[in-house]
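Supplementary notes (optional reading)

For those who missed the lab, this is the record we used. Protein: DUF6591 domain-containing protein. Length: 287 residues.
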Amino acid sequence: MTSFKQGMTVAVICASLLSVIAGCSGNGQSTTDKPAGEHAKTTSSNDEITVEQLPWNVEEGIDNGDRRVMVSFTNNTNHDITEFEVDYSLKADITDEQIAQAFEGTASGVTPEDVRNTSLNCTIRSMTGQGESATGFCDYGAWYMTSMAQLDLAEPDILTVQYVNTDSNTLDTVYYDFNSKKKNKDGDSTPLSSWPENSPRASMIPQPKSALISDLLDSEDQLRFDILGFSYEDFQQYTNECVANGWQISTSMDDIAYFVPKDGFSLDLMYSDDSSTLSVYLNKEQQ
């Protein structure tokens, strides 16, 4: 069994976080011991997100027979959340001997220098609706953490929460700095795209059921877009919908589907489990 993983980064944007409570228990790290129902409720889609609305916890668990350090949170905001990530930094007084002891027997060849020079993150990248909970994993660089002793070498540094802003039809992200206990003041928003219903190219493929479409480009030679918050099951279903729409699969693997060109266009689907994103490419065949 292996603890290797593939890492990804996500563009982040600005909004506001107010306050945070960070603490440790005997078997994990968490923000609060209050039940989810005791947290403040929002009443408008553009209400500010607070950490109190996002109770989270980190503890050891088992995933498919492998020991992992797992992070979980509950979404008590008035938004659908697409990413929840806690970035950690090593404590200032941690020695190389302590690092070596905590990571002994995990990844072959990993040294204290490797750990010091890589990122330590606990990440959940999936669509988490209002009132729902989600679980993800903690990692150091390309490797999963397998023991709380590893995470206990570090302390929370920055919290990133990416969410759907229905008022502005954008994908926004909020930061919170655990050290300064301050929110970020500047940033951008990623506009979500509308389905081009009148496009001849859009009529060639199924319209995604998800409204979370970004980076859409529609021209005479190409239609491409990303579908956010997509599960692996959603990817398989969309692949089947393309087949039902007359497309024939030429190559299929776990996370890609290439189709035989049809009506002068090729169709490629590429799925990323790390970011829960399906990228769709409909390209005009070269003459």
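If you only remember one thing from this example: The chain is about 10% helix and 40% strand.
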